[in-house]
C-alpha cells in the first residue's frame, strides 16, 4: 500500500482474494463495481493527517461523521493483513476518540479548526465542529469500533488514556441523557424543516424517564419524532457490553468495565420494557421510537443502527421478536418502505418518497438468505445509474435518479455484501472480520 495525495492505496492479499472470488461469479458488472468500491474509500476517503491520525471523508461532503467513519473503518478491518492500512485505521481510531472527548454531542467534525459547518445558524462557535446534532449512534458506533479494533488486531497502542477518556465521556453522556431534563444540550436551526431542528427551544418533544437514553436525532441526521430510539439503545448496550473485556485487559479498570455492563443491562432492559409493543397484524414488535408517554412510531430507516440490521450489530438475536419486526419494516406497514420496478426496500424521510437506500438493501440481504445476498449484489450493480457508485439512494422505478454523487458508506456496505457472498459460496475460507 502506498500513500497518495488524497489517501491510501490498498495492498491486501485478502482484498485480492475477495476480488477473485467475486470475479468467479461470472458477472463483469458486479466485479467492476466491487473493485471500484473496494479501492475508492482508501484512496479518497481516508486522509492521513500530519499529527498521525487519519481523517475520514463521508464522501462528497468535506466533513467527518463519527458514525460513517466508524462504519467505513470497520469494513476495512478485514484487510489489516496490509500493515500500512492497519496503521491508517489506527489513525482513524485515534481521531474518533479525540472527537468524542472534544465534544460528545457533535455528530460530524471538520478535518481541522476551519469553522466550516453544514448550517451557520446552528449557534455553536467551535471551529472543529461541522454539525452538533446529538445522535446516540454516533457514540455507539465509536465504542463498537474500539472493541472490534482490539478483537481483530490485538493492537493497544491507540487504546491508551485518550481512548479510555473517550469511553468514560461516552458513558457520562449516555447516563446523563437517561434524564434529558437534567441535560444542558439544546439544538435549534433557523429552518422551516421541522425534521432539521428540535422544538421547545431546542429541548425536543417531551419524554418520560424510562431508563432508555435520549437522542435528539436519528442516524439519518433527521430529528426524532419521539426521542428514545430502540435500535440506538440496543446497539449502545451491545457495544458497551463488548467493551468490558477491553477495559479489564487493556486498562485494568474493573470499575469502568462494571460501569459498562451496568449501563448496558439498564439500556437493554428498559428498551425491551418500553419499546416492545403489540401490532395487530405482526404481533410483538420493536417500535422505532417511543417517548415513554404513549407515543410510538412503527417504522424503520435504513441508516445504522436500524431495526433491520440489529442482528448484524450483535444487538438483538434472531428470534421471534426480530422476525416479527423484520416482517413489519419490510412491508407497507413501514411508512418508509418503497417497492417498484427495480427494487423494494427501506427509504427514509431524509430523501424523497420512492427512493430506497442501498445500505438498507444490503442489511435486508445480510439478514436474509444466500440467494438474497447474491441477488442484491447483482441488483446494486444494475442500479448505479451508470456511475460506478453505490449512491445514498435511488428511485425504485428509475435508478438514474439518485442522491449523493459519492457516498462512501454505500461503497463500504457493498464490500461487506461481496465478502458475505464470497463466503457463502466457499470461495473465501472465512471472512476474517469478526462478527460482533
| CATH domain topology of the domain at 133-330 | Glycosyltransferase
Helices and strands, in order, run as HHEEEHHEEHHHEHHEEEEHEEEHHEEH
User: What is the arithmetic mean of pLDDT?
Assistant: 95
Number of helices: 13
Radius of gyration: 20 Å
| Regions with little confidence, pLDDT below 50 for 5+ residues | 1-5
Helix content: 40-55%
How far apart lie the N and C ends? 28 Å
The share of residues in extended strands comes to: 5-15%
Number of strands: 15
The CATH architecture designation of the domain at 133-330 is Alpha/alpha barrel
Name of the CATH first level of the domain at 133-330: Mainly Alpha
Structural class: mainly alpha
Biggest beta sheet summary = 3 strands, antiparallel
Pfam family, one: Glyco_hydro_125
Protein name: Metal-independent alpha-mannosidase
SSE topology:
Elements: H1 13-23, H2 28-45, E1 46-48, E2 54-56, E3 64-65, H3 66-76, H4 83-102, E4 108-109, E5 129-131, H5 136-153, H6 161-176, H7 199-202, E6 228-229, H8 230-249, H9 254-274, E7 276-279, E8 283-286, E9 289-290, E10 296-297, H10 320-329, E11 337-339, E12 344-346, E13 355-356, H11 358-366, H12 370-381, E14 393-395, E15 398-403, H13 408-424
Antiparallel strand pairs: 1-2, 3-4, 4-5, 6-9, 7-8, 9-10, 11-12, 13-14, 14-15
Helix pairs in contact: 1-2, 2-12, 2-13, 3-4, 3-5, 3-13, 4-5, 4-6, 5-6, 5-8, 6-9, 8-9, 11-12, 11-13, 12-13
